[in-house]
Amino acid sequence: MVKKVVFVFGTRPEFIKIAPVVRELRKTEWAQPIVIATGQHRDLTAGIAETFDVFPDFILDTGEPAQTLSDILSNALPPVDALLKVTRPTGIVVQGDAHSAFVGALAAYYNKLPLAHIEAGLRTNDKFAPYPEEMNRRLISILTDIHFAPTNDAAANLRGLGGRIAVTGNTEIDAYAHIAEHLSEMRTARPYPTDKRLIVATVHRRESFGEAMEEVFDALALIAKRKDVNVVIPLHLNPHVQEAAEAIGLKDSRVHILPPLPYSEFVRMMTDAYFVITDSGGVQEVAAAMNIPALVVREKTERMEGIKAGCARLVGTDARTIITAATELLDDDAAWRMMSRSPCPYGDGNARKCIVKILEEEWGHET
Hints:
The protein is α/β, with parallel strands linked by helices. It contains 15 helices and 13 strands. The strands form two sheets. It has a seven-stranded parallel sheet with strand order 3-2-1-4-5-6-7, sandwiched between helices. The chain has a six-stranded parallel sheet with strand order 10-9-8-11-12-13, with helices on both faces. Helix 8 (211-223) packs parallel to helix 13 (319-331). 49% of the residues are buried.
């Protein structure tokens, strides 16, 4: 009998990282993937379905402007719970650390269904950094039956919690590899200048809202004054991010402001980057796979593997520190080469195959 496997996601990073697994699961004879979108990032996830040929089976209308964390939980949990009762799956798969993943995990528990967690085990051991993602991961881990850890360090963080632990690599690398195969076919014009060394920046983390984010934007504006670089930032649509940009006049600076790009276009932009300045976990992973140095503008990161490998550097949110680190990469060829030649610690792009194999071992048999 074909088993139904439900995937729950709500944000753009989640969709990018579950799509390779859904594609791989569709190739099997034992499973039917069912994808539920909670609707948090409806604008930002546009285009990803077409890119990966993975379309949600159910799209919930739970996203509201300026909703709080408790709003997300209370709006999304009842309809996800109701859909599980209708679809009656064999198991639930969630990814990462967003509130939608926590909702999926809670709904699985309430319905006494087994839970698998992709990208399990990442930790900073500070419950407010990242906020609320650190606690979401910890709480999901308690409920999880199959932990798909991207690295050995992540797996070590899960020991003693129960359930099966497997080191799979990160599905972000699988997603990047899929896009990389088709970059040469892209015909759209680049919406950013290419006449100088390109610095790509992304900033969106909730724990940085306010003064910390303004410091980062101030650093980007000052770096952009150099005559030998172009600084480009696809500006997140979150109102707090927009307010921080307005507060320091980022849109009036020499930083090239873009709207959020489709994932394939963002990856192409990354291929042009000299280095990246980011607080995004996914961007850290893709940069490592592409041998692009990453300056991580956070006080703590749950992806210490990149820091240890030397492909990323944790620089915090102080403007002077960010400018100093960026200046070193721009003016010191040896420093740039050292970071750009560091090995990628996040896998070889075959995480999806490992995950689907284990799901079949655990859920593919008759009970």
